[in-house]
Each structure stands twice: as C-alpha cells, then as structure tokens.
Amino acid sequence: MLNILAQAATEAGEMVEGLKAIGAGLGYGLAAIGPGVGIGTVVGNAISSMARQPESAGMVRTTMFLGIAFTEALALIGFVVFILLLP
Amino acid sequence: MSIKQKAKEEIVESVSETPEKRIANHLALRALWVSPLFLILSAIGWGLGGIVSALLALVLVAFNFLAGAAIITRTVKISLNMLYGSVLGGYVVRLAILTGVVMSVRSFDWFKTVPFAMTLLVTHLGLLATETRYISASLAYPDLKPTSSKEIR
C-alpha cells in the first residue's frame, strides 16, 4: 500500500514538473505575440512616413528603432518569466 | 528616370547616415559604463557565477541592440518591403538566439538565473529610458543631440 502511494506521489511530482515546462513554453509564446504585433505596427507606420516624406527618413528611423527596442522589452519580460518558471 | 526610382534614390540619399547604428553604438557603450554596477551587485549576491551570468546578460543586451540596428541599416538600402520583412524576421531570430544561448548554458553550475534576469531586464529598459535624453530626432540631427561645437552643422 505504501509503495503504491509513494509511486503515485513521484508520478504527481513529475507531472507537476511537466506542466510547469508546458506553462513556461506557452507563456513565452503568448508573450512574444504582442510585441510581434507591436513591432509590425511600428515598422508599418514608419514605412508609410518614409514613403510620404523621404526627407524625414532619418528622424523616422531613429523613432522606429527606439519603438522597436521598447516593444521588444515586453518579449524580454516573457522570456525572463520563462526561464524563471522552467524546472 | 521614373518617379518611383527618384523617390527611392531620395530616400537612400536622405538616410545615407545611419542614425540607428549611432544610437545602438551609444547604447552599447553605455552598457559598458553601467556594467561594473551590475557585476558588483551580482558578485555580492551570487559570487563568481553571478558575475558571469550578469556579464552574459550585458553581452546579450548589447548584441540585441547592435543586431537590430545592423538589420535596419542593411535592409533600408535595399527596399522598404525588405526592411519590414527583415525587422519582423530579425525580431524572431534575435529572440531565438537569446533563448538558444540561455538554454545551452542554464545546465551549467555557474549560471544563476536571478542575476541574469535582473541584469537583462533592468539594463535593456534602463538604457533605453535614459537614451531618450540623448536623442534629438530632428531634421538637422536625426539621431543623437550634438555634444560639441564641432558637431553643429
């Protein structure tokens, strides 16, 4: 009886570890979607601006680069949560 | 010469200087300046492993900025469509590189998750937030503010 309980406890522990890994992976994947959409919006609008006003392209590129980097910080937060959750 | 070609040449001409590259270099340089603070904090809390982990995070942050800027600099000369595709593709590739590096070193004893994560996030966001103070983003100075009289055009 004790053996069966010990085996069940071990299996439950393994299952928890597995679920943690799945949760971490899912969380990272979901956290990367938002910045992907954000970067798409930033670059899309920057390209519109550059096409409309080529003389302001340098300024637009500066703003675009900073916008991309700020948006990417969200993905980095997801990445940090992922490595902290990993078993 | 068609209007399209002329417009393309105008874009290339007006962006022949590389503002994002200058900003990325400035960010990487400032990451070097703030590195002692993070290394000392990591050394106090986690020892030698903490130092190496924090150093890895600093290198990855600097690489991330430089690679992002290099992608924009290279592709904007080709076409705007290429720029769009490369920036989005580059985002995925840079995240994959970051994940690959961390997954390959996390099994080592010296790798400490907390100093790595702390340094990665604080450096990335902190550097960007303070960089906004140095940005001019005007037509005359599209990237950084001029720091000396020699730079004033």
Question: Can you put this structure into words, describing what you see?
Answer:
- The complex is a heterodimer of chains A (87) and B (153).
- By secondary structure, chain A is mainly α.
- Chain A has one domain: F1FO ATP Synthase (Up-down Bundle), CATH 1.20.20.10.
- Helices cover 92% and strands 0% of the residues of chain A.
- Chain A has two helices and no strands.
- In chain A, helix 1 (2-52) packs antiparallel against helix 2.
- Chain B is mainly alpha-helical and 153 residues long.
- Chain B has helices at residues 3-14, 19-76, 80-105, 113-131.
- Chain B has four helices and no strands.
- The model of chain B has no long low-confidence stretch (mean pLDDT 86).
- In chain B, helix 2 (19-76) crosses helix 3 (80-105) and helix 2 (19-76) packs across helix 4 (113-131).
- Chain A binds chain B through residues 28, 32, 35-36, 39-40, 43-44, 47, 50-51, 54-59, 61-66, 68-70, 72-73, 75-77, 79-80, 82-84, 86, and chain B through 7, 10-11, 14-15, 17, 19-20, 23-24, 64-65, 68-69, 72, 76, 80, 83-84, 87-88, 91-92, 94-95, 98-99, 102, 106, 113, 116-117, 120-121, 124-125, 128, 131-132, 135, 137-139, 142-143.
Keywords:
heterodimer, A: 87 residues, mainly alpha, F1FO ATP Synthase, B: 153 residues, 75% helix
What Rg of chain B, in angstroms, do the CA atoms define? 19 Å
Low-confidence runs of chain B: none
Specify the biggest β-sheet of chain A: none
CATH C-level of chain A: Mainly Alpha
Largest sheet of chain B: none
Topology, number of strands of chain B: 0
What structural category arises from helix and sheet content of chain A? Answer: mainly alpha
Question: How many strands appear in the DSSP assignment of chain A?
Answer: 0
List SSEs of chain B in N-to-C order: HHHH
**How much is the average pLDDT of chain A?**
89
Query: Level of helix content of chain B?
Result: over 70%
Helix content of chain A: over 70%
Low-confidence regions of chain A: none
Q: Measured on Cα atoms, how large is the radius of gyration of chain A?
A: 22 Å
Average per-residue pLDDT of chain B, rounded, comes to 86
> How much β-strand is present in the residues of chain B?
under 5%
Q: Any idea what the shape of chain B is?
A: flat
